[in-house]
Automatic annotation (TrEMBL):
Gene3D superfamilies: Endonuclease/exonuclease/phosphatase. It comes from the Bacteria. This is Endonuclease/exonuclease/phosphatase family protein. GO terms for molecular function: endonuclease activity. It comes from Streptomyces eurythermus.
Length: 296
């Protein structure tokens, strides 16, 4: 592992687990190489398609390649077959508990961990909000806020399938009159004041009242990192309008003071694998440890 003074947390929707619809193993291996280069200590995964099959062989193969301990949700019968997961560095973290929450469309994966030598636990959650129903997305977002109850320290990474709600990014939201994919229009808009507008409700729920901090927005406005607000999806389709920042990492406000960097990785290799950029947040590990009550 690289210097223990930096904590790296990544989140990535690897479309159909890097195999696409044709089962291309080369793309999956390329995905592993891309992630390995960043050596994340926490990796929030979306679209672990078929990774539950064959004794979770694909899941463990990826964890071994990355040097991380992998966890994932069980795909629910008759619903989404693209589960989420979390992979963590077993050298840095102790596992306290593992949970799966069976929400209306797709389960959310949650781990409770501790940094070795610290007392205060950290809640980790990987989410892939419903792609077709804004009301389900709002319910999923409200559920995620429960993790922060009672002063818990939380980091959430995922594909939110919806848009940032702040004025800073409002001008970059889709012009729905120009979007050819009308199914996408039905999936990604809500009605407000008699008009159909971009669905920003999940972000309003998660960050609008201060339950969580949008770490990309914090990096852009407080740390002056303009690349933190680059779009993440779709990197390949043209019928759904310009790419948008739908993949995000957010955390309870205590984490913001330890953030040192935030970036969207959308290289040609990334586009070869999936239609989503990889999101990476960097933290001062010493500051994170102090925040979580080190054992003296």
């Amino acid at each position: 592992m690289a210097s223990s003074r930096e904590l790296r947390i990544a989140s990535w929707n690897v479309e159909h687990n890097g195999r696409g619809r044709s089962g291309d193993e080369d793309k999956r291996q390329l995905a592993h190489s891309i992630v390995k280069a960043f050596e994340p200590h926490v990796f929030f995964r979306q679209e672990l398609t078929r990774a539950w099959d064959n004794g979770k062989a694909d899941l463990y193969a990826e964890g071994t390649r990355l040097g991380l301990m992998p966890f994932m949700t069980r795909p629910p019968e008759g619903r989404s077959r693209n589960p989420v997961g979390i992979m963590i560095d077993p050298v840095l973290f102790d596992i306290v508990a593992e949970y799966q929450y069976d929400l209306p469309w797709k389960p959310i994966c949650r781990l409770r961990v501790r940094i070795k030598g610290c007392r205060r636990p950290i809640e980790l959650a990987s989410a892939h909000l419903c792609h077709f129903d804004p009301d389900i997305r709002a319910t999923e977002a409200r559920w995620l806020t429960t993790l922060a109850d009672c002063g818990r320290s939380v980091i959430v990474g995922g594909d939110m399938n919806s848009y940032p709600h702040t004025d800073l990014e409002s001008e970059t939201l889709p012009d729905w009159d120009t979007i050819p994919d009308r199914v996408h229009y039905e999936h990604r808009t809500i009605e407000r004041d008699g008009k159909r507008v971009s669905d920003t409700r999940p972000d309003e729920i998660l960050t609008g009242s201060g339950v969580f901090t949008d770490l990309g927005l914090y990096a852009s406005t407080i740390l002056d990192q303009s690349g933190a607000l680059l779009p993440t999806a779709s990197l390949t389709r043209t019928d759904q309008g310009p790419a948008q920042r739908i993949d995000r990492i957010c955390a309870t406000p205590d984490w913001a003071q330890t953030l040192t960097g935030y970036e969207v990785v959308a290289t040609d290799d990334v586009k070869e694998v999936t239609d989503h950029g990889l999101v990476l947040a960097r933290f001062d590990l010493d500051a994170v440890c102090r925040m979580h009550d080190p054992i003296r």
